[in-house]
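= Protein in question =
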Amino acid sequence: LMTDISIVCEIDPSARISPNVVLGDHCVIGPNVTIGPSTVVGKNVTITGHTSIGSGNVIGDGCVFGVHPQDLKYAGSPTLLIIGHHNRFGENVSAHIGTEFGGYLTRIGDYNVFGDYSHIAHDCYVDDHTTIHARAMLAGHIHICNGVVLREDSGVHHFVTIGRYAMIGARTPVRRDVPPYTHFCGDRGIETPAVRGVHAEGIAAAGIGAREQKELRRALADLFDDESALQTKIEQLVNLGVEGEVEHLCQFCQNSLQGVFGRYRERYRGQLAPEAEQYLTPEQLAEARRALP
């Protein structure tokens, strides 16, 4: 099949566009862009920078991918935006390339859904099967783990980690790490958001067994049902012996407590994040390391 390209598109001849890609009217595709098979691109979409898009994605009208990050430290290097497979982007979604000092890479995994006007800033890592609702905003250097749900108009501070299958309530500012499987939001007019309960749908979606689900729910209750010292409660759980998802939960919370302002990823400020070493080629890693101060 030939690529279906509507009229009045500006496509650099060196862009690599697979067969059976559909491009809507008035798209702009830059020279270092790769688009995989069976991806559908709407109208008025701009894809530039060193951007790689996998197969089976649906990209809504007006999206902007691969432009320079809004970070004054960015010095113009050929940093990357990598988008996986079978993602759905609503209208006017934006995603930036990485920065030299932040890991060289912004990465979006597979089977994610991004609502209209949502934003993924530089050096973010969004894993798989997440749902980012309309107008949700990610600042730089964030890690969104598998299965996370961000409700509409939420905003996430830079260097935050949101644990797998957590849910962020609508219009919630997130300034510190959010533990896995929790529901994080404000409540009854309380200004400061916090863990308000268990994300039951997330636990169900994770596909873990009934016994482990029960142990996970008990551990979440032990950690977050009262306001006593979290460090003490983690130590008590670990001393009883934990494994699987409960062990992961305890380690996540321990890491956050050791981070700056409750953000574990602050330790990677000014250095390569571990995900960069996972996803960059050896040549790209060498270039990223040369760019570090």
Remarks:
- The radius of gyration is 20 Å.
- The chain has a mean pLDDT of 92.
- The longest strand covers residues 194-198.
- Helices lie at 200-205, 210-224, 230-240, 244-258, 274-279, 282-291.
